[in-house]
Fold each of these.
Amino acid sequence: MATIHDVAIAAGVSDATVSRALRGMNSVRPTTRQLVLDAARRLDFTLSRSASSLASGKTMRVVMLFGCTIASWFNASCIEGVLETLEPHGYDLVPVRVCDLEQLHGFFADLPSNGRNMDGFILPSFSLDDSESALLSSMHIPAVALDARSASRLPASVMLDNKRAMNDAVRFLRRLGHRRIGYVAHPKPAPFPASSYLRKDFFLDAMRECIPDAEPVVFASSSDMDAMSEDEAMAAMAGRIASSEHRPTAICVETDEAAVAIMRHLRQLGIHIPEDLSIIGFDDHPTAVVAGLTTLHQDPQHMARLAAQQLLALMQGETLNETVTTVRATLIPRATTAAAPALQ
């Protein structure tokens, strides 16, 4: 079995250089690193992960915190984007799931003892309170916010421009002649604050700017929906929209998944879409394509790649030229929007 010294002899360098090259340290010239990698490959030599970690003080682990369902479209896309970026550099991704506020606060309470088991941290979509954000900063763990609303206290962030997205949606509907526009929150929200919750406020800002004399209607989740199944809550929300005294001619819905489900129930109630009611979702989830849903497209896999690139630079001790990367959502018109009924 080949040793690190055998690789050093084959590459014509010192044992220490082999160790540094195989651990990805920046102090090795690219040409030298390639010599070492080629020699190690010929000799079928692999540097022990545990030995490398002991020598470098690195765990080669990055923790990513998720809310409840890791297999959701957004979370799975984020994992894919981060893995694409981190795996070639030898890092393992450790997903951690929290399903309620108690678990979320517990994760941060345990962080001072568990933080030594990670080299970096990626936080997708959560909205942290000031104490949790400050804790991450005080521990000097390289951390990147991925559309998380505590970005100002983290070393770097990749943010979706939800504000501009909602402005684009309202302007698009205004051009179609809509003035009575509503916003629909997800009827079964997550148990802790997420970045999508902020879309309602950005919608209201856009309405004040674009249609200042209009009175937007907000259809929010209510306590009676807590005990309902998700489908029952979607049906209840559709009923509220359909029976509204001043029913809007268009609605913006917090997510595509909610929009598609509510749209199905609205049609069952005799609401014609888009003739009676135009609908815009958010995400460009795969179901949006099938349903022909007009939506605001985001690419969480691309955003996750950007976040992982930022984290790699931070873990290697580099200074970022830009600490905040803002990504724009794109309006995708499909079959669920049309001119306001009064114009037809």
Amino acid sequence: MSSLCVDARLLGSAGIGRLLKNLLPSFSENFSLSLLCYEKDCEELRSYSDRLILMTSPIYSLKEQLELPRKIPSCDLFYAPHFNIPLLPIRAKKRVTTIHDVYHLAHFSELSLPQKLYSRLFYNSALRLSDQVITITEFSRGEIQRFCRVKRARLAVILNGVSQMFQREEQSAKGYLLVVGNIKPHKNLYRLLLAYERANPKEELVIVGEREGFLTQDKRIFALLEKNQALKERVRFTGYLSDRELPPLYSSAKVFLFPSLYEGFGAPPLEAMACGCPVVASNAASIPEVCSDAVEYVDPYDVNSIADGIVRVLSDDKRREELIEKGMARVKKFPIEKCVQGYLEMFQALVNE
């Protein structure tokens, strides 16, 4: 059996963590699997492998780069699910990296000087040092080509999938507007709050996701809420919730809101669709590619457009039912099994070369 080492340190993050949780069960069945991890994730990861390699250095640090070559074992294949790859030589015969998006390059002017230097170095190194680079939409492939000048053939697109845990659950009431995401600036929560205030629906706004711990965060969000007590009383932050806690929330929401400025894929709208919740979403980046005609599109840079989209879906029962029906059909095009099979076939082809 071929040996595979996976960097699983981002197991707890939203998009990358979700991908890892979907891939690891099949990796454990088809490879001799080793996992780089932090101690906090050991209990969960033991269900996939007993070869856990503890890392102690922070992600995106110099110490990380010194620790990775020492800890990565001799293996047929090393997989990095993010662009923070080891720069120094490692004991892997082949490397694969997933680059989900190039947000840091697309929004380069918003970064600090260290972040700019880090982003350029690691995106380009991931492309140069990897035997295969995976990305998750045609949009992201085009963006990588645009900013990194890499040949199209070097980039394979494997679409993310939606887990079968996301299914419609019958709920007694649908009484809130829902957002699932974090407070990074590109998630556009500041404009969403302004739009929510302008639309003035009777339903409260529930925001699921972590509020702290990000290198970049939109501080305007909390400044706005502190200044506007009436708005603050109608907005509820739940903090982090596990994947298992999300389907009932999606199913009970009246509308799901996704006003993001930039996404490599954007799984939450599909998860909402799978749970029978109509979606109001941004018309930017990869979102139209992923969502097709199954959402109510708005201009994420225009507060009035976002507010109008909210009002349209809340006030028009026929439109809501149409979006629910189209959403249930759209999400069927993203089975998680297809995503997993794409990774397995690529990995097996590489180790057999």
Amino acid sequence: MAIISIEELVEAGVHFGHQSRLWNPKMKPFIFAKKNLIHIIDLKQTIRGFLRARHFLGRLASSGAQILVVGTKKQLRELVASEAKRADQPFVIERWIGGTLTNYNTIRKRLDHLIHLEELEENGQMERFSKKQQSRLRREMRKIRRNLDGIRNLKGLPGCVLVIDPKREEIAVKEAAKMNVPVVAILDTDCDPKMVDIPIPANDDALRSVQVLLSKLMDAVITGKANMDENAPRFRSEIPELSGRSPRRGGGRGGPGGGRYPSRPTGGRADTVSFGRPTDDEEGKAAVAKGAAEAGETPAPPAPAPEGAAPEAATPEAKAPEAPPPADTAPAEPVTPPEPKSPEGPEGEEKKEG
């Protein structure tokens, strides 16, 4: 039996796009036709992107990686939360907090503070505070829980970010690209497919459309976790799509979008990946040291300038001492150290006159 069929997608309304006046020209390869000023999505491209995403997410889950599911539309919040909890994956259904990926240490501190407040409330120690202080702490706990409760179990960088409508979640997509985290997206005809790695063209507004695709993607994640080997190396060294990523992301009809954000070197676990590159000065120093090592000598440091030596661009007041005259010629005046000049001003003039 097929994993997903075109009839099932048509029944769920996956093929309905946005109005033609709102389209993004980069979505042209994924559009089948235009009818009544509404674009119709090519469901063959939808199935192609869905199968690639399903295979990719399954392999990530089998290697122990986490998939962060992001969907903040009001009509999709309950669906995203329930499907992510079913697969035991982190999720974001409220406003995306800037720095969730690029400044994860600060986000982790806020989650630790939430755990501390919950422990105070469970142990009854919060009753020791004044009523005003209790009200403030409970209000802070509700705020942190509303914004960050879905990523409570997120451990470092996720293996992938699954986004519903990347146009709405543009900040999340940019942060993932900056941290070199691959992005799988369910996107409509008004989105830019070049911002994601694996696009799934579909109706990202209707509940039934997103439910059909998201539920089957989470089924692949659950299956991958069931086949996970605890002793196997972690995901970045095992997934070919991550270990050999090109400097520009994807391209071509039906392929993974990309090209707007440069890729960075990957390897090892997500919490140990180094994203830094040596500067030009460091590269130059390394090249000099390598050349000296091959020649069998150590480059000597520059010799210090002798005391009293004149600088390269000497001023007329500071000249080098002249050579002594020959023996048959008497010096014009004895060579003696110059006396300090008298300070300028009235006092100096009086001393000169005296």
Amino acid sequence: MPRIINIPTFEFENGEVLNEVPVGYERWGELNETGDNVIVVGHSLTSTPNAQSWWHGCIGPGKALDTDKYYVVCANVIGSPYGTVSPISINPETGVAYRDNLPQASVRDTVRLHKKLLDTLGVRKIAFVIGGSMGGMQALEWAYYGSDYVQGIVPIAVGGRHSSWCIAWSEAQRQAIYSDPNWKDGSYELGSPPQNGLAVARMMAMISYRSLGSFESRFGRGRNRAGSFRAETWLHHHGDQIINRFDPACYVYLTHLMDTHDIARGRDEYGVTLGAITQPTLAIGIRSDVLYLLEELEELCRYIPHSELAVMEGLHGHDTFLIDQDELNEMVLTWRQRHIDPLVDSVVGYQVG
């Protein structure tokens, strides 16, 4: 179970206010006396805040997210069932689950809530924010707190706004859940959730997270002993897994949250808004990604002035940033040592304690 801190009150972008808002998080390393040796990790759609469980190759002593030097924090997003307020959380004012009465959060809302968490933890400055996919959306939003607070960002496998292509994938997955008779317009009994719909949604997502090359190299036209294609078996395996660890209403909620992603919304023209990010930025794209195309990362680098592009060459598609962790670790470590460590080390009185 994650650590939990309750935020006394939180106002969403749409003006709605919640009281006693739980935020789930995990942390590694020690916060220094000046509260500025902090790395924030943003997680992806169905991941937990236990980032070390899914990014073990990048978090730890001597790694890109060096827990001997830095205080690494990963907080659960609004709407996820892993500690932060979600549709299945109990509303303290009514004693029943929020369900569809939970205000729809944006990526920006989640970052604002996480800022309140960091304030509570004593964080005064962030060395850099890193995340892939939905976590990359958060990294980009964090940049608008300014370079005095956030010193660098590493958005991975993400663009500056959710494309119509990604929105279509989200809607198709939502429709899979809606089509399950147990959905009941979201009023399903918690003991009888629309598991079949959620499983199909996850199977669809898993296809978008990989690539033709990945499927061909791993499965080809091979069959298992029961006669099913190995690709079919793999999809069903992931469908079976998700129903044991995630909630359908949370899945729907989070796909809507991701669809809100547009860093220019309410700010300025898209290119101008990206150009306002002044921090050192490492944008990491994946050549085989068919969900968030490499050209979206190239676009970020065209507009963000102090940015550089690194390209992962793995054939596993979008999930390459979770699979080829040695390559990712080396990219981030090299960038961190060049751009971030000098900023942190230059602080007078730097001391981990």
